[in-house]
Amino acid sequence: MKFSRIHVNREEMFSLGVEETSGQFYLSFPVSSGLADYEEYYAIDAHMFERFQHNLASALEFVNRCRRQELDELLMQKPGWNKGTAI
């Protein structure tokens, strides 16, 4: 998978982009497993991608649900046995 960032929010520590091979839009943020720091990528649709670029409150609501691991079914890369937690 090749992830290309389109929008980065440094203050809230998340980004929006597209996975180039599939064309799937995503939202990502950094996590740490204690062994390594990495990004988690959550699949979103085109409507959400547009909305999140222009509506920070809506994006943060989604990001926070992901950080609480409530939307793990949307993960584009499934974690191993040692799933990280949001940084």
Task: Quickly count the domains.
Answer: 1
**Uncertain stretches of 5 or more adjacent residues:** none
**Helical content (DSSP H or I, runs of 4+):** 10-25%
What summary fits the major beta sheet?
5 strands, antiparallel
How large a portion of the residues is in β-strands, by DSSP E? 35-45%
SSE class: alpha+beta
Give the overall pLDDT as a whole number: 93
Described by the principal axes of the CA atoms, the overall outline is: globular
Q: How many E strands?
A: 5
Distance between the termini: 23 Å
Number of helices: 2
Commentary on this structure:
The chain has helices at residues 46-54, 56-67, and strands spanning 3-9, 14-19, 25-32, 37-44, 85-86. The protein has 87 residues and is of the alpha+beta class. It has one domain. Strands 1, 2, 3, 4 and 5 form a five-stranded antiparallel beta sheet that branches. Helix 1 packs across helix 2 (56-67). The longest helix has 12 residues, at 56-67. It is globular and about 35 Å long.
Write the layout of secondary structure elements.
Blueprint: E1 3-9, E2 14-19, E3 25-32, E4 37-44, H1 46-54, H2 56-67, E5 85-86
Helix pairs in contact: 1-2
